[in-house]
Design brief:
Elements: H1 13-24, H2 28-33, H3 35-50, E1 56-59, E2 62-65, H4 67-79, E3 82-84, E4 94-96, E5 111-112, E6 118-119, E7 124-125, E8 130-131, E9 136-137, E10 142-143, E11 148-149, E12 154-155, E13 160-161, E14 166-167, E15 172-173, E16 186-187, E17 192-193, E18 198-199, E19 204-205, E20 210-211, E21 216-217, E22 223-225, E23 230-232, E24 241-242, E25 246-254, H5 258-262, E26 266-275, H6 278-284
Parallel strand pairs: 5-8, 6-9, 7-10, 8-11, 9-12, 10-13, 11-14, 12-15, 13-16, 14-17, 15-18, 16-19, 17-20, 18-21, 19-24, 20-25, 22-26
Antiparallel strand pairs: 1-2, 3-4, 22-23, 25-26
Helix pairs in contact: 1-3, 1-4
C-alpha cells in the first residue's frame, strides 16, 4: 500500500480528527483490510504534508499540543506492514508501507542537497528550507520557511521548527510519540542551535534564542540564568522554556557530596550568560543569498 499526498484532501480537520479516532480503536487486521481506513490515512498524511494539521501550534503566545495528531501517526504505524522500500538493488531499505519518503517536487522549493538525506512523508517542510546532507526529518515534524537543517542534524517526530532557524551540524531535535501525553520539542523563529546540541523531551526554545555548541536540554535539566539570577526548570504541565533572546552555553557546576569534592567532579549545566544584543545578532546573522 502506498500512502501518498496524491489523495485530495477533501475532509475538514474536524471530520479527519473523528475518523482517525475511530481508526485508533480498530485491530491491525481491520486497519489493513479497510478501504475507508486507506482513504482516511491518505487524507491524514496529505494534511500533514501541506501543514494544514500539525502536532502543535502557537496560540496566544503559548503552544497547543494536538494529541490526536500524534495518535493518528501511531495508527499509521499500526496499519503499516514491512515492505521493500529500496530505490534500487544497491541500497536495500525495509520500512512500513504506510510511511514512504515525502513526495517532493521542484515546485515545493525545498533545497535538498544530494548526499544521503531523507525526509519521511507526513511532515511539513516549507518553501525555502535548506537540507544539507546527511540529515533526517521524521513524520509529524514541522519545519517553517527559511530554516536550515545542517549535516548530521535530526528533526525528530512531531518536533516544531520555526522560521529562519539554523540547526547546525549534528544538532539533535528529539522526537516524541509515546507516551501519548508527552509534549513535542518546539524551536521558535530565528533561533540558532549550535553544533552537537541536543534538545529533547518537550523543551521549548523561544524566539531569537541562541544555543551554543554542545548544549543539552531535556525535561530534567535545570538552566541557570546568570543575568536574572534564577533557575529555570520544567514542572508538571509546564515545560522547560528557554526565554526569548537568551544566549545559552554549556557550563558546569560542582557536586556537593564528599566523594565528588574529593575527586573534583562537576556536572554539565546549561548557563544563560547574556541576552541577545547587536553583537550577538551580527554573529548569528543568516546569509540570505543561501536562501534565494
Amino acid at each position: 500500500m502506498n500512502m501518498t499526498t496524491n489523495t485530495t484532501m477533501s475532509m475538514t480537520t474536524e471530520i479527519l480528527r473523528e475518523r482517525m479516532a475511530e481508526l485508533s480503536s480498530l485491530a491491525p487486521h481491520e486497519l489493513i483490510s479497510s478501504p475507508e481506513a486507506d482513504a482516511t490515512c491518505a487524507a491524514f498524511l496529505a494534511a500533514l504534508n501541506v501543514g494544514t494539521i500539525r502536532a502543535a501550534e502557537p496560540m496566544d503566545g503559548s503552544w497547543t499540543v494536538h494529541q490526536w495528531v500524534k495518535q493518528g501517526i501511531l495508527t499509521l504505524f499500526r496499519k503499516g506492514r514491512l515492505h521493500d522500500a529500496s530505490p534500487d538493488g544497491s541500497f536495500p531499505f525495509f520500512d512500513k508501507d504506510t510511511l514512504p519518503l515525502k513526495p517532493l517536487t521542484l515546485a515545493d522549493q525545498v533545497r535538498v542537497v544530494p548526499g544521503g538525506s531523507a525526509i519521511r512523508t507526513g511532515c511539513y517542510v516549507a518553501p525555502g528550507v535548506i537540507c544539507m546532507p546527511p540529515m533526517y526529518i521524521n513524520i509529524g515534524a514541522y519545519v517553517d520557511e527559511g530554516s536550515m537543517v545542517d549535516s548530521h542534524a535530526l528533526v525528530g517526530t512531531c518536533a516544531q521548527i520555526g522560521k529562519r532557524v539554523h540547526l547546525s551540524a549534528a544538532a539533535q531535535i528529539g522526537g516524541v510519540l509515546e507516551p501519548a501525553g508527552a509534549r513535542p520539542v518546539v524551536i521558535e523563529d530565528d533561533v540558532m542551535v549550535g553544533g552537537n546540541c541536543g534538545v529533547y523531551e518537550g523543551v521549548r526554545v523561544r524566539s531569537r534564542a541562541v544555543l551554543g555548541s554542545g548544549v543539552i536540554l531535556n525535561a530534567s535539566t535545570p538552566v541557570y540564568d546568570l543575568v536574572h539570577e534564577r533557575i529555570l526548570r520544567s514542572s508538571g504541565d509546564v515545560p522547560l522554556e528557554i526565554p526569548e533572546g537568551a544566549v545559552v552555553v554549556a557550563g558546569a557546576r560542582t557536586i556537593a557530596t564528599d566523594f565528588a569534592q574529593t575527586h573534583g567532579l562537576s556536572m554539565s549545566t546549561p548557563l544563560i550568560v547574556k541576552y541577545r544584543d547587536e553583537k550577538t545578532d551580527a554573529r548569528t546573522a543568516l546569509e540570505q543569498v543561501l536562501r534565494q
